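__Record contents__

***
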Amino acid sequence: MAFRVFVRDWWKPNPAWPNGREPGAGPRHVIRARVETEAEAHALARRYNETHDPGPLSRKAEYESL
């Protein structure tokens, strides 16, 4: 089975909401188009999340099966 690793924001800017942001999963931005195992996808997502600041919109890496 193959997997795609991507990042997306979990908040979107909205000045009318508390802290200037509202919940909303943003579009996916692929960081690795395809890996062959779930273990490899998990490791890539974990490494990205450990080495990148999520910022105010909480950008995090995830993966999905293809």
